[in-house]
């Protein structure tokens, strides 16, 4: 494979490109300082870099800390969103404003080890456009999270046409060409894991063991994770709708067979099917199924409605530089 031209040669190895690191942060006051120190220590080996924090409407001291860091080191930048727009939208804001030849996205809580960044860059220099990471063994992740996440990836791969490797998170390196493609995406419901699998290009994976969250708590509650999973599935698949059709057809067939049975009973034994319990159960059952199917359709229509508004993904309150 061809390397990035002119970037691999000998002592000039780290000279001709700029690395951007994009980090969404929502109430991460306890992590930012530590993470920045580690990042600066690693990135100083490269000729040019920027660290771009996206403050996703934090209510703690996150923004103050970011401002202080920016004053001390002009390579550290921040964008502060007008409210909490969510992790994926914050990522989008970061990608939109990053200026590097390659962009690394990672979490603010040190679960994604900064020490891995040189490896990501190494792979990029070899010529890969997307270098994504896979969690391998996860001592830092709770039992419930591990189980639900495993279930999600299985379901997602079953239902959609893209393949999402299990344990993929938003810790990856993207080449400038890929970032430019992602910047142009207009879809309101973002699911970057799916989109980066969907764009193609030359992709490569690296495995890592996630750390425990350094400070603070996870910002993804069970409810948010469910919403996130639903967005992932509905963004990349129409299969739930098709499953509804299948369900409807099979139930209708069943009802038909049962109808024939009841009529035959009436004709040959002179008595109708006994009891109202069976009627009640089937009415309730079918009613339930109908509501579920309606809900699935509603979910898609709702998403369509939101998309049609074409609202921006985020609103910026302030930032550390113009572009
Ligand atoms: N995050 C964000 N906005 C949100 C929720 C999370 O910017 O509304 C950031 C958060 O600060 C962190 C990253 O997204 O940098 C991942 O969040 P978290 O560590 O809480 O998720 P987990 O690792 O538990 O899945
Ligand atoms: Mg985390």
Descriptive notes:
- With 323 residues, this protein is an alpha/beta fold.
- The protein has a single domain, classed as Spore Coat Polysaccharide Biosynthesis Protein SpsA, Chain A.
- The protein has ten helices and eight strands.
- The protein has helices spanning 32-43, 62-72, 87-97, 117-126, 143-159, 176-183, 192-199, 222-236, 239-269, 277-309, and strands at residues 18-25, 48-55, 76-81, 102-105, 130-135, 168-175, 203-208, 316-319.
- An eight-stranded mixed beta sheet has the order 7-5-6-4-1-2-3-8, with helices on both faces.
- Helix 2 (62-72) links the parallel strand 2 (48-55) and strand 3 (76-81).
- Helix 5 runs parallel beside helix 8 and helix 9 (239-269) packs antiparallel against helix 10 (277-309).
- The longest helix has 33 residues, at 277-309.
- The protein is elongated and about 90 Å long.
- The mean pLDDT is 86.
- Magnesium ion (MG) is lined by residues 107, 109, 111, 213, 218.
